Amino acid sequence: MIKTAFLKPNGSVISMDQFAIHHQNFDRKGQELIKKWASETEGKDLIFAIGNGSNTYNTQCAVCNLMQNLKTLKKQVDISFCVVPECGASKYSCTTAAQEEFGKEAEIKQISAVSIGRRLIDPMSEYVKIEPQHLGQGQYQLSADEKLLKQKVALVVRDRVSLIGADLNQASKHLLQYICGLNEATAKGIVKYREEHGAFRSREQLKKIKGIGAVAFQQCAGFLTVSNPEEDSERGPPAKRAKTMEEWCPLDGTIVHPDDYKNGRK
Question: For the chain, which domains are there?
Answer without folding.
Answer: 2-121 (3.30.420.140), 149-264 (1.10.150.310)
